[in-house]
Each structure stands twice: as C-alpha cells, then as structure tokens.
Write a structure and sequence with these properties.
The structure holds two protein chains of two kinds. By secondary structure, chain A is of the alpha/beta class. Chain A folds into two domains: 48 residues, no CATH class; 268 residues, Rossmann fold. Chain A contains ten helices and 16 strands. In chain A, strands 1, 2, 3, 4, 5, 8, 9, 10, 11, 12, 13 and 16 form a twelve-stranded mixed β-sheet that branches. In chain A, strands 6-7 form a two-stranded antiparallel sheet. In chain A, β9 and β10 form a beta hairpin. In chain A, α8 crosses α10. Chain B is mainly α. Chain B contains 23 helices and eight strands. The chains are: A alpha/beta, B mainly alpha. At the A-B interface, α7 of A face α9 and α21 of B.
C-alpha cells in the first residue's frame, strides 16, 4: 500500500508522530491552532474539523472497485464510525438507467455490495438499498439486486408506489419547503449515498447531492417550479448522508446523465462524511467534457458550501489518497 | 348444488382467476385467453371481417362441433358471461318460475343480431366488441372491476405495513401491486349494463334473445344427439315448462325447442314422475322448429341494417381507412401500441377484450374513447402522460389473442416506431424560459433528444431527432411541464406493417432506432452540445 499524504500543513503531525507527542510539538500545534483560529476570525481561512487529525475529510482510493470501496471507508475510520450495531441503514446508489457497467450511468453493483457487506459487519440491523428509478423498476435494479442477494432477499427495492412516500418538511428550504420522501429514509439511523460519478446536462454533475432526488416522489417540480440547483441544496439540507461513497471506477464525462458519452476509467473511489466535499472532490479530480473544472463551477455545490451544508474548499480539507497494489 | 351450478361456478372462478393472474403478471400453464378462444361469435366475426384464419379459432370451432352432439352446453355450463348474468338476475329478478314468459318471437332476435353482425363483418366492420359475449365479459372485469379491487388490496398492504415492518417481512412491506387506471370505464360499464338490463324482463334475456354466439350454437343444436326426451310417464303438469330458464319447453311439455335448450336439466329434476331424461335414443318428441320462413323479413332487415351500419361507419370522416386514405380525421392522441397492424386491419381484428391494456406494465395503454367513431371504441392507445411505452417490453403483442398487435421479437421490437415526439417550444422550460431542465434528454431511451446551443439562450435547448425517435413517450411522461407537456408524442410516421420485418422497413426509410446502450459511444473529439470554442463551460456548469 503506497501512501501519499497531501495538503498537510507543516504544523500538523503525520500519522506516525501522534504517539510521540513532545512538548515542542504540542506547543507548535497549539500555536498553529491559535493562528488558524485567528485566521478564521479574520475570515481568511475556514477551519478544518478539530481533533482526530489522522482521519482525513476525504479518502480517495485507486484500485479494484470492491477493495477500493472498503479501503476508502476504512481510511475514514471504518464503517463502525458511521453504523452502530442495531442501526437501520439506507444506501442510495444510482440505479435509474438500466445501463451496463461500461456505460457508467449507474453505480457499479460491486461497490454497492461492498457497502452493504461493511454495514452488515458493523452490525446494522436493517439495510435497504433504495431508489425511485426513472425506468421500469425491476429492470433497473437487476444488477445491484443480484449483487446484494448474498445478504438476503429484498434488500434492493425500486420504490415506485406513492404509498411508500411520506411528506417531510424542509426547515432549511429556501424554495422547496417540503417534499415526499420514502418513509424508511426518514426513519433510518444512517443514510449512505453511493452515486456514480457522471456529468449531467442541467445539473453539471450528478453526484451525491443530485442523487438524493432518487429518494423523493416528485422530482419534476424541482425542474419546473424551483431552480434546480437551489432545490437540490434544499433537498440536501433534509437528506444529508452520513457517508458518501462516490463510485468513480468509471466516470461518464460527457453526455450525462443518460449517455452514451465518453467514459473515463479512473478506477477510483471517493469517500467522505461530507456530501459537499465528496462531490467537490469528484468534480475537481476528473475531466468534464475534456476540461478541468473547479467545484465552484457547479452551482449546487457552490450554494451548499455557502449555506454551510458542507465544504467545497478542498485546499483546506485533508484529502488522503492511496493506491491499492 | 347441481352439477350445472358447480361447473358454472368453477368456470366463472377459472375465468376470473385467469384474468386476475394476468393483472398481477402471473403466467400459469393455462392460456390467459382460454375463454376468449372458446367464443364462436368472436372467432367468426374476427375471421370474416379480417379475412383470416387463426389457430385459436379451432377451439371455437370445436365448441360448435360439440354443440351438434350435446346441445348448447356452452351457454348452460361454460359461458362466464352467462353465469354472471344469471347471478345478477338472481339478485334483481323474480325466480324463473314466477316470471311471465317472454313473447315467443323474442328468441328469434338473436338470429337477426347474428345476421346483422355477420353482414357488417363481410363489409369489413367487426362489431365483435359490441356483441361477442366473452370479449365483453373480459373487458368489463379486466378494466372496470379488477382496477377497483387492486387499490383495495393495496390499502390492505398499507394497513399491514406496520406489522410487516415489526416482523421484518421485507417482501410484504415492499410488495408493490400494479395499480392500473383506465379511461372510459363508464362507457364499458354502460355496455355491460345494457347486457344486464335484459334481466328486467326475463332471466338471461341476453343469452336467449340477443347473443350472436348463442345464435350460432342454436343453429348447431337443432337436433343434438343427446337431447331432452320425455317418456309416457309425463302427466302434463307443466312444472318443467314453468321452471325452464331458457323457455325451451312449449305448450306441450313433451316437445322441446332444442335450439333454445341449454341442457341445464332443470326439467329432469323438477319432474314429479321422472318422465324427463337427457339421452340418445328415439323416445320423445321434438318440437317442430318453426324455421325461418316467418322471419325472413326480419332477417333481411337485419342484414340490411348490418350493411347500412358498415357503409355508414366506413364512409365516415373519422374512419381510418388504412394507409391509403388521405382524407380523414386522425386524432393526434391516437398512438397505437408497438407492432399494431395498419389501422384498417387492426380494427378488423381487435375485439376489445382488454388483454393488452390489462397486461401493459406501465399502464400507458388506455381504451380509446369516441374520437375515432364507432369502430375505434375502446381500442388500445398509448397515453404517454400516464406512462411511457418501454422499448424492451413486448407484452401487448404477446398477449393479443387476434394478433391485431403483432408479436415481435426483441430484435424487431425496438424498430416498432409508434409516433414522433415534438417539442412545444412555447411551453418548454429551456426554450421559453431559458432554464436548465432537459429531463427529456435524460429519460429518452433512444437518445433521440439532441441538445443544442442557440443564440439568445443560455441553456442548451432540446431538439428531437425524428430518425431516432420511436415515439415511446418517456419524454412526454417525464416532462415537468404540467397539463399539456412541453414535449408531446403524436402518431406521426408510425410504422404499421401487416407483415414483414419492421426492422427492414425502418432501415429502408432511414430510421435509426437503437436504444442508448447499443449506440456507439461518441468519439473522443465529440463534445455533445458543448462547443469548446464558443461556450464558456460545458452544459450544466456555471461560473
């Protein structure tokens, strides 16, 4: 395993240094903390979460998608950090298009299976893999359903009947003040987003935030009545995943969300507990329409950052990249 | 319970069971259209009007053949409509024994009806959907009655959800029943009520006096091999005539009108002296069949009515005269299912049993209303606002008993163009309001929506590539614009072939119908709607 640490300011200790904490290091770090706090107060720098310095904000793992998924979540502290024994977990992959894995329109079944496996290991009482697909449900979820069958029947469900949806108020909603959400999502202890990384002709990219539209009943209204990007952020304030695993084993770089478009094969998994950061990382890492773009170029990421739902300032976040051998 | 009642209830149950299993897409070993195949009127009228012979007609022919030996057993035992009518009559009519007998000439009407529909069929107008008993019965239960029960079942599931949740019965918790809705159910109800209204005068009035299938079987049953016989023991108490539900026993209880007799054997059971039996042999009299001489005028008139009805209908402005008729009204919302034959041939074959509508998994197929005039009543039409037509689904063609919708192979299916979508720019969020939407592009299974940049629009706007559009209606269904969506499918350029390959034809006229994933991926240089020179950023991104 080759480890590359990135963006570590000199004042912060590397993972190996934590054990041997000397007075000098302690003072240095406190000085650093004081300076950073001062910087924050002046509005120069946004803070990074205090404590647990060895756990990155974003984990980026290159390698075989199943193993990479596990490694990425492990870098964040393992699934037990997010899922406690007895928890009810909802996994939201993108399984709306009934495409083949090489089309990069849907999350790869291996990634979803690995997430479900890790949730099982962490002692989750109930795991559901849910989506409100655009096309005929049975056909869309076939691949992921087969992949997850080892963990029990009926884990994967395409929910296309109104009775499964329950109205929820969006307290922080600016445009969309309420929406109908799959009821089990509202009752779940843990929500895990597992989007595939793809371009989207009107949202720019379709990642974890855009993916939350697959858990609600009326998506059309987000296009017609509201501003799409504003309402994506409104929805993200209600459905805020505890963990995001972006499947960038393949990236649909052009002509998304439906394709066929140019498919990159970065063999990468991005994981973060911050949905905005995960999406921002995916935007920054890959080429879209042959161009390098910044997270700022995606309006809903920008708004979410400004509204404090998460952070897109990757330079200030700890990103840990590893490559599986 | 008598044998007749047992068989009747078993057949009705089987009929409803087959329909219900079709509603829940359960495929058993019995054909879903078992009873439709047995209906001689449906087979005869479809065969004559479409000038075809189908393998499934053999079953109806067999029913007629057996009738020659056993009499009208179909009416007395098998016919689910007959049993249904009898059940309804039992609720709203007085018992047969206290009803006043219907006038003697009423049962002759059914021959008039038969002549009427056969002449119309000869002219090319199939009226099987109005008069054949089993299609009427199928349609009524599949499209009017079952859709009432499915939401009720769904409600039960909803009530059971907390329990299912508690005991971790995920299968039950997430059981999603098909909840179809159908248009024009009042029209279908009225047609059924017209059939049932006969009960006002007499039990099974429809079967005795109007049913053309009954008339056909009556013609075969004038002297069946096994028939009612009365021995010397008869004391002429006339109890049998009083109880006969078919009015087949005349003033002399020894005589029988076998064409009317439905072999229910009520007469044998009520006879106090056991003088009545059903057997082969020579004992007993047969009532002289009055023949048709006295009714010649009525039959000629019926034939003339059939001729007139057909002529009037077929010459109407709304009649879609096949591919050559140019002067006609084509309703823009009449989108036929994929693989539907040319309109003329389609209407000759379709007897509106409702099988395709019931089987359609997206509920897009709806019974069409009156906009096509009489011959198009209740025919299936794609209604994209209710659901899209899945380009991989072939079920309507597989299930159609008369192949009015052709059964297509998967390779043929995607070439079955049913219409073409067009963008209504004045309603489109991108075109009219310069907003980012493009749901139509997202959902199109054929990748037929092209996004282009146009001057004075910040957002890319949708164009339909009509060579790639199959008219499946995903775009119309998912378009977020309400009332009339901003992209609508019309039956323009639909491919309707009587025979031969849709694929070959479609390729010949330059169509390019492939589903997204079969399409070649664009070359590395292809940026879709993104023009790197002129656009600041790719679609969806912003500064």
């Amino acid at each position: 395993m080759k480890i590359q640490d990135r963006h570590y300011p000199p004042s912060a200790p590397g993972p190996d240094e934590v054990e041997r904490l000397s007075r000098r290091v302690f003072l240095k770090r406190n000085t650093g903390l004081a300076l950073w706090t001062a910087a924050l107060c002046c509005g120069i720098k946004l803070p990074r979460p205090a404590g647990a310095a060895e756990i990155p904000d974003i984990a980026v793992v290159r390698g075989e998608r199943g193993a990479a998924t596990r490694a990425a979540v492990d870098l964040l502290g393992g699934m037990q950090r997010f899922v406690q024994p007895g928890h009810k977990v909802i996994v939201k992959p993108n399984m709306s298009f009934a495409g083949r894995p090489e089309d990069a329109t849907d999350t790869h079944p291996d990634v979803v299976r690995e997430i479900v496996t890790m949730c099982k290991e962490a002692g989750a009482r109930r795991i559901r893999v849910l989506d409100h697909p655009l096309r005929r449900g049975e056909r869309c979820i076939e691949g992921i359903r087969e992949a997850c069958e080892v963990h029990g029947e009926n884990i994967v469900q395409a929910v296309s009947n109104k009775r499964f949806y329950q109205t929820a108020k969006i307290d922080q909603g600016r445009q969309m003040k309420s929406t109908d959400v799959i009821w089990e999502v509202l009752e779940a202890d843990v929500l895990i987003a597992a989007p595939v990384a793809k371009s989207h002709s009107s949202a720019g990219v379709s990642l974890s935030m855009k993916g939350m539209m697959g858990l609600i009943w009326n998506r059309g209204i987000m296009h017609s009545r509201y501003d799409l990007h504003e309402s994506i952020v409104d929805l993200a304030s209600l459905l805020k995943p505890d963990l995001v695993v972006v499947d960038a084993s393949r990236v649909l770089s052009t002509n998304g969300p439906g394709g066929p478009g140019r498919v990159l094969r970065p063999d990468t998994i991005i994981a973060s507990p911050d949905m905005v950061a995960a999406d921002a990382q995916a935007v920054a890492m890959f080429e879209w329409y042959g161009r390098k773009l910044s997270p700022r170029n995606v309006k809903h990421i920008r708004i979410a950052h400004d509204r404090g739902l998460g952070r897109m300032d990757l330079d200030n976040l700890r990103v840990k990249q590893i490559q599986l051998g | 319970m008598t044998l007749q009642r047992t068989v009747q209830i078993a057949c009705l149950t089987l009929f409803l069971g087959l329909l219900t299993s079709a509603a829940f897409r359960f495929v058993g070993w019995l054909p879903h259209d078992l009873f439709l195949r047995l209906d001689p009127a449906a087979a005869l009228l479809t065969g004559i009007s479409a000038r075809i012979w189908l393998g499934s007609f053999a079953a109806a022919l067999a029913v007629l053949a057996v009738t020659i030996f056993l009499g009208r057993f179909f009416c007395g035992y098998l016919c689910p409509l007959g049993t249904f009518i009898e059940g309804v009559d039992a609720c709203i009519c007085r018992p047969v024994a206290v009803q006043s007998p219907i006038p003697a000439n009423w049962p002759r009407w059914k021959y008039g009806v038969l002549v009427f529909v056969v002449v119309a069929a000869l002219m090319g107008l199939s009226l099987a959907f109005l008069f054949a008993p089993i299609p009427a019965m199928s349609r009524f239960f599949a499209l009017v009655v079952l859709p009432l029960l499915q939401p009720a079942l769904d409600l039960l599931l909803q009530l059971a959800a907390p329990l299912a949740d508690k005991f971790d019965l995920t299968g039950l918790l997430y059981l999603q029943l098909p909840l179809p809705r159908f248009d024009n159910q009042w029209l279908m109800l009225i047609l059924m009520l017209l059939i049932l209204a006969g009960g006002r005068w007499h039990s099974r009035l429809w079967c005795r006096c109007l049913c053309p299938a009954g008339a056909l079987m009556a013609l075969c049953a004038r002297r069946p091999l096994i028939r009612r016989r009365v021995t010397e023991a008869c004391v002429e108490c006339k109890l049998c005539a009083l109880h006969c539900p078919a009015g087949a026993i005349g003033a002399d209880p020894r005589s029988t009108s076998h064409a009317e007799c439905i072999v229910c054997q009520t007469c044998r059971r009520v006879c106090p002296t056991q003088a009545v039996g059903f057997s082969t042999g020579h004992a007993g009299e047969t009532a002289g069949h009055p023949g048709f001489a006295r009714y010649r005028r009525m039959l000629l008139l019926s034939g003339a009515c059939g001729l007139g009805t057909a002529a009037l209908t077929l010459s109407g402005a709304r009649h879609l005269m096949g591919d050559t008729g140019t002067r006609r009204i084509t309703p823009p919302e009449l989108i036929r299912p994929p693989g539907a034959r040319p309109e003329d041939s389609f209407l000759r074959r379709c007897y509106r049993c409702g099988a395709c509508l019931q089987a359609c998994p997206t509920n897009t197929l709806q019974p069409f209303g009156l906009a096509t005039g009489l011959p198009g009543w209740l025919t299936p039409a794609i209604t994209p606002q209710l659901g899209p037509c899945d380009p991989t689904c072939m079920i309507c063609g597989q299930i159609c008993p008369t192949q009015a919708i052709r059964e297509l192979s998967p390779g043929e299916r995607i070439w079955a163009k049913v219409g073409t979508a067009q963008v209504l720019r004045h309603k489109c969020l991108a075109w009219e309001f310069d907003r980012k939407c493009l749901v139509c592009d997202e959902v199109c299974p054929y990748d037929a929506i092209e996004l282009k940049r146009v001057p004075e629009r910040k957002a890319a706007v949708p164009f339909v590539d009509e060579k790639r559009c199959s008219g499946c209606g995903f775009c119309e269904h998912h378009c977020p614009v309400e009332a009339v969506p901003a992209i609508v499918v019309e039956p323009m350029e639909a491919l309707r072939l009587e025979s031969g390959s849709l694929r070959t034809k479609a390729r010949a006229i330059g169509l390019d119908l492939q589903i997204r994933r079969s399409r070649p991926r664009p070359a590395a240089s292809d940026q879709g709607p993104y023009d790197a020179q002129n656009d600041a950023l790719p679609p969806g991104f912003s500064e």
